[in-house]
Design goal:
alpha+beta; eight-stranded mixed sheet; about 475 residues; 16 helices; tRNA-splicing ligase RtcB
């Protein structure tokens, strides 16, 4: 594969063969060494072959191999030019996302002193693990309401406050959701899972603001140096996974029906304006809303635990909640012309710049908060989106560190080690539902998120605000 360097942090796969646009990857020379060894670059190239794609098929610096589209991939399609929507461009964990809380009324030192008890209490209150259910059991009609209303349903059930909704992407509700397109199997899987963390790379962390890069922005976001935060990373659980599974079968047939030539079967797609495309968009929206509601319920549980453990005067304000693994209709300027595009962000975060109307009013003059978790042994970052990101990447940024090792290789590397003890030596209390997930999620399995963040900052895709260091980690 030909790969041309276009700048210190930009690389291009020139258009060739069936490619309709070039590929573009944001990475440092050091990160590109590992990226070249991963099939993800071939996936960038394959995505560039899909009908209606605009601009370029893109990869963020956390890019790695995924199903069809790479994880860390961004692509936008114009419905007026036969642009498609693809389940592979969203992924199985629909609206896997990250939510940050700013905790006040509790000294960080006190929370750190009681980190072991706090970790146990959080795991007890918030079920974690593969297929794990919680205390909320939804009936079919209730699932439909969750699928339409998202976090608004949770707030109506008193799992939070109306103020929370103003600090969530899409205000916590995908307005285009159509639960009627969600299968019975998805409903069965999702019914017991609201308010649960799941497994894999999902987590709940309690952290300290370890470094501040922009004092004014950090103050506005409630992130003072030495301050206390909680970071929640989870998605739509079995509900969203089943939605993706169901539509992969339908999209394989839709690709044939609509004459879409696929360089990879996993890129099965349908024109956005087709019956199949609209049905998937509606079902995906319902899964997005399930994820919003899920993170809202977990937020409520975190607040309950903090107040039960530390005296009832603790507040945990929602800073922001960002989506990964979604496709949205957005307006972007391409070659000087505004166009309505279906933007796929798979393992990527929206990063709109200051003044964008989609950003909550409280943050609009700053730019959209971008939350970038690392791994359980190092650090996470809070950034702000930029106008440059809107120009270069359809307002998109990295979503995390990005895997460096497969889960199998990570387990091999962790064999014989006590990861809990290793983290304890770093002042981190770990609670997990199972050993296997912990072994798969060791720090060595991931790129150093500091390197990933350095690329997006120096590429102008985001501005740094603060770095967060975990001292409580809860895993599935």
């Amino acid at each position: 594969m030909q790969l041309e360097r276009r700048g210190e942090f930009e690389w291009e796969i020139p258009k060739s063969g069936a490619m309709r646009v070039p590929g573009r990857v944001f990475a440092s020379a050091e990160l590109m060494e590992s990226i070249r060894e991963d099939p993800c670059l071939e996936q960038v190239q394959n995505v560039a072959c899909l009908p209606g794609i605009v601009g370029a098929s893109m990869g963020m610096p956390d890019i790695h191999w995924g199903y069809g589209f790479p994880i860390g991939g961004v692509a936008a399609f114009d419905p007026k030019e036969g642009g498609v929507i693809s389940p592979g461009g969203v992924g199985f964990d629909i609206n896997c996302g990250v939510r940050l809380l700013s905790v006040t009324g509790l000294r960080t030192k006190k929370a750190r002193e009681h980190r072991g008890e706090l970790a146990k209490a959080l795991l007890q209150a918030i079920p974690a693990g593969t297929g794990k259910g919680g205390s909320i059991h939804l009936k079919a009609h209730e699932l439909d309401v969750v699928g339409r209303e998202g976090a608004h349903w949770a707030v109506a059930q008193e799992f939070g406050t109306p103020q929370d909704l103003a600090h969530i992407e899409e205000n916590g509700r995908a307005a285009w959701a159509e639960p009627k397109h969600v299968s019975a199997d998805a409903r069965i899987r999702g019914a017991p899972q609201l308010g649960t963390l799941g497994s894999g790379n999902h987590f709940l962390e309690v952290q300290e603001v370890e470094e501040v890069y922009d004092e004014a922005a950090a103050e506005r976001l409630g992130l003072p140096l030495g301050g206390l935060t909680a970071l929640i990373h989870t998605g739509s659980r079995g509900f969203g996974h089943q939605v993706c599974d169901d539509f992969l079968d339908r999209m394989i047939q839709a690709s044939k029906t609509h004459g879409i030539e696929l360089p990879d079967r996993q890129l099965c797609s349908a024109p956005f304006d087709s019956d199949e495309g609209r049905a998937y968009f509606g079902a995906m929206g319902a899964a997005m809303n399930f994820a919003f509601a899920n993170r809202q319920v977990i937020t409520h549980r975190v607040r309950e635990v903090l107040n039960e453990r530390f005296g009832g005067k603790v507040e945990a304000a929602l800073v922001y909640d960002v989506c990964h693994n979604i496709a949205k209709l957005e307006t972007h300027v391409v070659d000087g012309v505004e166009r309505g595009l279906v933007v796929h962000r798979k393992g990527a975060t929206r990063a709109f710049g200051p003044g964008h109307p989609a950003i909550p009013e409280a943050h609009r003059d700053l730019g959209q908060p971008v939350l970038v978790p690392g791994d359980m042994g190092r650090y996470s970052y809070v950034l702000l989106g930029t106008k440059e990101a809107e120009r270069k990447t359809f307002g998109s940024c990295c979503h995390g560190a990005g895997r460096l090792l497969s889960r199998h290789k990570a387990r091999d590397l962790a064999r014989g080690r006590n990861i809990g003890k290793e983290l304890a030596k770093q002042g981190i209390s770990l609670q997990a539902a199972g050993r296997r997930t912990v072994e798969e999620e060791i720090s060595e399995a991931y790129k150093d998120v500091a390197q990933v963040v350095d690329v997006v900052v120096k590429s102008g895709l985001a501005k740094p605000v603060a770095r967060l260091k975990p001292f409580v980690v809860v895993k599935g």
